[in-house]
């Protein structure tokens, strides 16, 4: 207690400056999370308020962990994130390298590249739901007009096509953040090491592989860290495009949580799942943050 | 192939990629000006024949065929919620960012890490307890309830961005100002704030966009026209028996325009803020 | 009148004490230079005078008034920072006038003061530029101009010249000295460069590890360094130090190098271990030195390296396996390995206790003059 008081007195100014930020996060994030952690151990259902006190121990977690739907959704989510993040990174890298090469109209190109970043995920979902629609979607219309396909392709109904369509929307939305940050890295790149490597007889590929890419890695990890902060935005896209359906074929962890909580009204079980999703997000962020720190140390030589 | 030719080819390729990126958005914008009839026609009509503002009139309840969705109210709710939460979040976040940039105190780096981690909680996971707590406190389905939540989710990122911008302002400028006769408060507003201003503006716009575009939390915490935001309202269209594609497109355009303008204004600072916050530790 | 007094001033960061009870009296209009290696506490001391660092213990008074609890703005001081700390978003004129504007002075008065300062420092043509459009030397001038417009009681300088190149540095050194003569004010100046300290100071304060080691006029500290630290820190090239032992009325530096005991050290106990110090200026080859009066010892030493500087040549010679520097006036070419006869002016030699490094004083009682 005495130490606490001395700590506060010695650091009064920064603590006062931080107090509002800490307060609001305590109230809006930490407190609810403690509450939801508790409800994860109850049989809480929205329609029966008294069930909040119905303590059932680990049964929710046991139920969740033995639920095939949950594992399917979790597996699908991890696959989705792996595919999406990797493709976003590769495409972003290509895009950045291309824009970096051109001189005429570079600023305009860069601005266009940022275009998808402004889109609300819900808009991205709507946009691709519209484009991939099997009767009026522009993609089906184009395929049919060009004679490439006789009948409508059920982009949002078929299991894998729907998965692909959603991933496509996600990638369209988030590639630009990689492209922008990698481009910033390319702009910040010193010329000397490249020239030295050329003099040492490296081919263009070797220069890229051994000089450019290592220098870009911290920027790629920043993009990954920022991205992993809001991977859960995919919920919005799925919700508007397929709603997790048809028949749960495109259910991701987040849509499953929403359905369990609000449609089935099983708050307790949904909260148990929510904790799994939180851990997933923290894991991704932490993983890339660690990589970022390591890459930064490694780059100390530059 | 000469160097000039190769450069030209790369330029063309880049141009085509950029065009491909734009097409989905442009298609929606185009649809916003076409009547539903033309969109639904089979076989597809490729060259628009009938462009008008009818869809926009309809969703605002002005034209002949009125859409039963109160887009005007949603727009107003979105504007009030986003602006208020941005102003509050930037004020709070700026103060926190300044503390991290200028003061040393025990536990600083772990405090920073915990604040950032609070941002990783998925919206839908956070919505569950908030839904219950807000129902108990009467904040559910009110603009105030959403504003509080958005302020909280915007604070960590605002701290991150402003901390980076304040760190760029040399510490001795504030000291020089204090020797020149300023109080610490004056030194901040006359010297440090003007120098970090553009960065703070971009942090504000980032916060605004986050609030403006947010869906997962708003979809659970709002129910009525008093508090529903535009992204939540957009889903009203899908609840109907037949989807009004043209109306949805028009609403999409309304959502995207403010975001578009604001992003263009700050694109440069945004990139700077994101990168030096991370690279030059 | 603005004397600055530091009484038992202590600075702690948490548990760590970095300034250990400093006492210093600075007279009105005196130019005092705090000098020492980095980390010696000189900048912290200056910042405590400025009010930018809290004083953990002790007392600081400016013009007889204790200022411990006063914020910087109420101490009527001005400061020139190492990185100038010019406000990048203001023009030169606005930078110069900022303090007066904060003080709520009238527009005309601010302009007049800014113009006057610009006049003194030759900044008049640049008044409407921003700091980003100025060269290093010009920024330095603006920083000084900003300090003088308010007519402060005390000027504080925190390593103001360390970011300039050598040529500009010596030029600005002269300007600072002139400035002090024009606007007579108390000055406290921090630097790690002993040349700056010697050339600028009325009085030098040498600091090390949070203590004041020696205080005195530039000549004082040059001629009578209190210990080996000051001896090597002040003066360039650094004083040569060779360990030796008092033996039969001489100092044995090595098996074959012995130097007669300098005048006034006859009381040295037989076998006492000492550190023998002398400057390069006082060790010169026979026939290439200045005409020396007084006691002179002659030593034969091998030369390992010669650095011709034009008017003189610096020689590296060896005593007891240790390199010492010597100076050769009216130089002639010297090849490495050559053995030269050197003359050592004993009147300018110093003796220090080998253990503590403390200066051993010459005793007058034995003297015959």
Automatic annotation (TrEMBL), chain A:
Superkingdom of this protein's organism: Bacteria
Subcellular location: Cell membrane
Gene Ontology cellular component annotations, sorted alphabetically: plasma membrane
Organism of origin: Rhodovulum imhoffii
Membrane topology: Multi-pass membrane protein
Transmembrane segments: 12-38, 73-99, 111-132, 160-187, 207-226, 272-289
Record's protein name: Carbohydrate ABC transporter membrane protein 1 (CUT1 family)
InterPro entries on file: MetI-like, MetI-like_sf
Record bears the keyword DNA-binding: no
GO process annotations (BP): transmembrane transport
Residue ranges occupied by any ABC transmembrane type-1 domain in the UniProt entry: 74-288
PROSITE patterns: ABC_TM1 (PS50928)
UniProtKB/TrEMBL annotation, chain B:
Subcellular location(s) of the protein: Cell membrane
CC terms in the record's Gene Ontology section: plasma membrane
Keyword Glycoprotein attributed: no
Alphabetic keyword roster: Cell membrane, Membrane, Sugar transport, Transmembrane, Transmembrane helix, Transport
Coiled-coil annotated spans: none
Short name of one Pfam family: BPD_transp_1
Signal peptide residue numbers: none
Domain of life: Bacteria
Bilayer topology: Multi-pass membrane protein
Protein name: Maltose/maltodextrin transport system permease protein MalG
Residue ranges crossing the lipid bilayer per the database entry: 9-30, 74-100, 112-136, 142-161, 245-266
Matching CDD domains: TM_PBP2
Job of this protein: Part of the ABC transporter complex MalEFGK involved in maltose/maltodextrin import. Probably responsible for the translocation of the substrate across the membrane.
Start and end residues of each ABC transmembrane type-1 domain: 75-266
InterPro entries: BP-dep_ABC_trans_perm (IPR050901), MetI-like (IPR000515), MetI-like_sf (IPR035906)
Family note: Belongs to the binding-protein-dependent transport system permease family. MalFG subfamily.
UniProt GO BP: transmembrane transport
From TrEMBL, chain C:
Domain ABC transporter: 4-234
Keyword Repressor: no
GO cellular component: ATP-binding cassette (ABC) transporter complex, substrate-binding subunit-containing
Gene Ontology MF terms: ABC-type transporter activity; ATP binding; ATP hydrolysis activity
Keywords: ATP-binding, Nucleotide-binding, Transport
Tree of life domain: Bacteria
PROSITE patterns reported for this sequence: ABC_TRANSPORTER_1 (PS00211), ABC_TRANSPORTER_2 (PS50893)
GO biological-process terms attached to the record: carbohydrate transport
Family: Belongs to the ABC transporter superfamily.
NCBIfam families per record: PRK11650.1
Full protein name: Carbohydrate ABC transporter ATP-binding protein (CUT1 family)
Species the sequence originates in: Rhodovulum imhoffii
């Amino acid at each position: 207690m005495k130490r606490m008081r001395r700590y506060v007195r010695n650091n009064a100014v920064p603590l006062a400056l931080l107090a509002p930020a800490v307060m609001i996060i305590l109230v809006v994030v930490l407190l609810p999370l403690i509450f939801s952690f508790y409800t994860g151990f109850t049989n809480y259902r929205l329609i029966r308020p008294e069930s909040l006190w119905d303590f059932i121990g680990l049964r929710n977690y046991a139920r969740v962990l033995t639920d095939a739907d949950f594992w399917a959704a979790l597996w699908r989510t991890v696959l989705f994130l792996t595919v999406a993040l990797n493709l976003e990174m590769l495409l972003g890298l290509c895009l950045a390298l291309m824009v970096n090469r051109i001189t005429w109209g570079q600023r305009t190109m860069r601005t266009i590249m940022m275009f998808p970043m402004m889109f609300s995920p819900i808009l991205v979902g709507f946009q691709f739901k519209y484009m991939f629609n099997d009767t009026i979607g522009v993609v089906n219309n184009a395929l049919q007009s060009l004679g490439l396909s006789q009948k409508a392709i059920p982009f949002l109904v078929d299991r894998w096509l729907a998965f692909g369509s959603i991933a496509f929307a996600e990638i369209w939305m988030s590639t630009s953040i990689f492209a922008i940050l990698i481009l910033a890295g390319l702009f910040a790149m010193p010329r000397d090491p490249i020239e030295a490597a050329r003099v040492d007889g490296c081919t263009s590929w070797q220069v890229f592989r051994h000089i450019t890419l290592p220098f870009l890695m911290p920027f790629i990890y920043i993009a990954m860290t920022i991205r992993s902060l809001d991977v859960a935005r995919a919920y919005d896209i799925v919700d508007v495009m397929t709603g997790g359906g048809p028949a749960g074929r495109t259910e991701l962890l987040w849509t499953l949580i929403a359905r369990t909580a609000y449609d089935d009204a099983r708050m307790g079980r949904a909260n148990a799942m929510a904790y799994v999703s939180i851990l997933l997000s923290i894991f991704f962020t932490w993983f890339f943050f660690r990589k970022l720190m390591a890459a930064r140390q490694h780059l100390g030589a530059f | 192939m000469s160097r000039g030719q190769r450069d030209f080819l790369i330029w063309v390729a880049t141009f085509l990629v950029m065009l491909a990126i734009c097409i989905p958005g442009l298609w929606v914008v185009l649809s916003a000006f076409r009547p539903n009839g033309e969109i639904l026609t089979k076989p597809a009509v490729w060259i628009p024949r009938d462009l008008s503002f009818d869809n926009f009139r309809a969703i605002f309840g002005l034209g002949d065929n009125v859409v039963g969705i109160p887009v005007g109210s949603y727009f107003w709710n979105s504007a009030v919620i986003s602006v208020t939460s941005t102003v509050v979040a930037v004020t709070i976040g700026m103060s926190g960012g300044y503390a991290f940039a200028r003061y040393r105190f025990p536990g600083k780096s772990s405090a920073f890490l915990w604040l950032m981690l609070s941002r990783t909680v998925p919206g839908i996971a956070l919505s569950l307890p908030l839904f219950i707590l807000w129902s108990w406190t009467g904040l559910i389905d009110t603009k105030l309830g959403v504003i509080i939540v958005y302020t909280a989710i915007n604070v960590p990122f605002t701290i991150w961005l402003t901390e980076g911008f304040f760190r760029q302002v040399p510490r001795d400028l504030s000291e020089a100002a204090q020797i020149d006769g300023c109080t610490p408060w004056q030194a901040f507003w006359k010297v440090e704030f003007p120098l970090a201003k553009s960065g703070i503006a971009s942090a504000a716009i980032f916060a605004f966009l986050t609030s403006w575009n947010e869906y997962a939390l708003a979809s659970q915490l709002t129910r009525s026209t008093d508090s529903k935001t535009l992204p939540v309202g957009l889903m009203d269209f899908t609840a109907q028996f037949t989807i009004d594609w043209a109306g949805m497109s028009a609403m999409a355009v309304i959502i995207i325009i403010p975001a578009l303008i604001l992003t263009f204004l700050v694109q440069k600072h945004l990139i700077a803020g994101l990168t030096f916050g991370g690279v030059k530790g | 009148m603005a004397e600055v007094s530091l009484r038992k001033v202590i600075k702690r960061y948490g548990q760590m004490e970095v300034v250990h009870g400093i006492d210093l009296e600075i007279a009105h209009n005196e130019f005092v230079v705090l000098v020492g290696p980095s980390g010696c506490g000189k900048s912290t001391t200056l910042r405590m005078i400025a009010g930018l660092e809290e004083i953990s213990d002790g007392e600081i008074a400016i013009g007889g008034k204790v200022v411990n609890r006063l914020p910087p703005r109420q101490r009527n001081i001005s400061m020139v920072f190492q990185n100038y700390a010019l406000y990048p978003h203001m023009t030169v004129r606005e930078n110069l006038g900022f303090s007066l504007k904060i003080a709520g002075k009238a527009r005309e008065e601010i302009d007049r003061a800014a113009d006057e300062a610009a006049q003194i420092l030759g900044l008049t043509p640049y008044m409407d530029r921003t700091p980003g459009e100025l060269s290093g030397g010009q920024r330095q001038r603006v920083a000084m101009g900003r300090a003088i417009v308010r007519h402060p009681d005390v000027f504080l300088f925190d390593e103001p010249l360390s970011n300039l190149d050598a040529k500009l540095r010596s030029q600005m050194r002269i300007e600072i000295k002139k400035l002090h003569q024009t606007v007579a004010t108390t000055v406290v100046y921090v630097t790690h460069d002993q040349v700056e300290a010697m050339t600028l100071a009325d009085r030098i304060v040498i600091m090390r590890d949070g203590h004041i080691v020696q205080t005195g006029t530039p000549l004082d500290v040059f001629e009578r360094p209190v210990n080996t630290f000051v001896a090597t820190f002040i003066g360039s090239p650094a004083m040569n130090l060779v360990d030796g032992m008092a033996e039969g009325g001489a100092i044995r530096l090595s098996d074959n190098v012995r130097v007669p005991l300098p005048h006034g050290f006859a009381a040295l106990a037989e076998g006492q271990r000492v550190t023998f110090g002398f400057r390069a200026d006082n060790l010169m080859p026979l026939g290439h030195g200045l005409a020396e009066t007084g006691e002179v010892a002659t030593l034969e030493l091998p030369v390992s390296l010669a650095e011709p500087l034009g008017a003189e040549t610096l020689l590296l010679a060896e005593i007891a396996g240790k390199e010492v520097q010597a100076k050769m006036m009216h130089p002639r070419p010297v090849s490495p390995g050559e053995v030269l006869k050197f003359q050592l002016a004993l009147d300018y030699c110093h003796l220090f206790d080998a253990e503590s490094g403390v200066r051993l004083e010459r005793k007058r009682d034995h003297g015959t003059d």
